[in-house]
Write a structure and sequence with these properties.
The chain is α+β, with helices and mostly antiparallel strands and 114 residues long. The chain is built from three helices and five strands. It is a single-pass membrane protein.
Length: 114
């Protein structure tokens, strides 16, 4: 059985050398993969987050908005973290400002009959 050991050591020594430039290719592949991931996923998400933060900070009393749950209303009061929407006659609802989905053009609520 001892005649198998030298061939196993010789085989392991051949594998340790590996192909020339393999480490450089792996590093460049990982860097390229990260750059691709950055431009496909990270950068667009940060841009959307920045636009949403600007929209939430520019919110004013009297704006007509849509929440992330699809509720339409007119902003009647604002706080640092909350907004109060008038959704019908004598019906007001309080939402977190981060749940703002879109600011509608003036007169949209009257136009759709809400």
């Amino acid at each position: 059985m001892s005649f198998f050991i030298p061939s196993a050591q010789a085989q392991a020594a051949g594998q340790a050398a590996g192909p020339a430039g393999g480490e450089l290719f792996q590093i460049l592949f990982l860097v390229g993969l990260f750059v691709l991931f950055y431009f496909i996923a990270i950068r667009p998400q940060r841009k959307r987050q920045k636009e949403h933060a600007e929209m939430v900070s520019a919110l004013n009393k009297g704006d007509e908005v849509v929440t992330s749950s699809g509720i339409l209303g007119k902003v009647t009061a604002l706080d640092d973290n909350y907004m109060v929407l008038s959704v019908a006659d004598k019906v007001e609802m309080k939402f977190q400002r981060v749940h703002l989905h879109a600011v509608l053009p003036k007169g949209t609520l009257k136009q759709i009959g809400a």
